[in-house]
Amino acid sequence: MTETRQGGCLCGAVRFTAQLDSTEFGACHCEMCRRWTGSALLGLMVPEANIAWQGAEHIKRHQSSDWAERANCSTCGSALFYHVTMDGPMAAVYEIPIGLLDDASGLTFTNEIYIDHKPDSFAYDGNRTRLTRAQTLAKFGISDKEDQA
Ligand SMILES: [Zn+2]
Ligand SMILES: [Zn+2]
Question: How many angstroms is it from 104 CA to the middle of ligand 1?
Answer without folding.
Answer: 18
